[in-house]
Amino acid sequence: MINVTKSYLPDLEEYTNYLKGIWERVHLTNDGPLLRDLEAQMKDYLGVKHLKFCTNGTIVLQLALKALDITKEVITTPFSYVATTNALLWEGCTPVFADIRPDDFCLDPTKIESLITENTQAIMATHVYGNACRIEEIQAIAEKHNLKVIYDAAHTFGASYNGRSILSYGDLSTCSFHATKVFHTVEGGCIVTDSDEMAEKLHFYRSFGHRNDDYYSVGINAKNSEFHAAMGLCVLPKVPALIEARKRVFGYYNDRLDFSRITRPTLTPGVDYNYAYYPVVFESEEVLLRVVESLKAQHVSPRRYFFPSLNTLPFSVGHQPCPISEEVSLRVLCLPLYPDLAEEDVNLIAGIVNEALIPSGVVY
Prior knowledge:
Blueprint: H1 12-25, H2 33-46, E1 50-54, H3 59-67, E2 73-76, H4 82-90, E3 94-97, E4 120-126, H5 135-145, E5 148-152, E6 160-161, E7 164-165, E8 172-176, E9 189-193, H6 196-206, E10 210-211, E11 214-215, H7 226-235, H8 239-256, E12 271-272, E13 278-281, H9 285-297, H10 323-331, E14 332-335, H11 343-356
Parallel strand pairs: 2-3, 2-4, 4-5, 5-8
Antiparallel strand pairs: 1-9, 6-7, 6-12, 8-9, 10-11, 13-14
């Protein structure tokens, strides 16, 4: 089976060497030395001032909303993983969906201002597939209307925009370190800020609101463990090589797919990409389903990502039309992409896709 992704695992001995230290110290969690080391190394790698390593990429979105005191309307994207919308709903906020750009599938800044009301407090945008939003345009709107900006940057580790990590933009930016990501800690995530005051607030929010026996604020348990930090310390030094390997696979697809019948999202100018995903867009959902069926018949498992458009979720706040997102979500498919995906496997996948694009009985 060729899955849509495959987690990178470091040398087992390298990981167990960290485990030996955990066994010796018997310090398993609660801001341990490996966690602090990983945070320091990630800050250095990303060039950011403050970074808090947490349990996953969803809880950091919830922390961002809580830390910025967002409780009302948030203008957000319908084209993202469900965690983006779930975090808003879970924190009692009202998601207001603005449609996406037709070229890069990120939140369209030109659709934002008409949705702003007296209850609007923030913009929560997703850097789709690791590609940056129109950051300057979103920031200008936020400053004009006194709104906060939160970026769901779950896909962006190792990607940069205008020479800076994409995670360095916005009032707060979050990332996921799930096992399927470019950089992972099995489960995990982070939240990034330039503000000393905000970093201190997030420190307490992450850990029940107290330090030792001194209590400072409300808080939850968003701490991550030494075991997860150990995985991160093993994987982090490999990230440049992993991105290069993903780029090579990316190139194989570019050379072999028939782009007369499919398209890909465009890259935002100024982005140094991390090759997180390989999405393709078909002419119709009918064609997509035919391709999926053909791939699965050959034991290849792609993913409809993102699907469905989040403004159509039955448990959200009522349908808010976003025709571009709704249409794209029906036609987009992520093909398998991971560092050690073999060239011959890409040849197989591309061949299946190209053949399935042609309706049966039609000869070209």
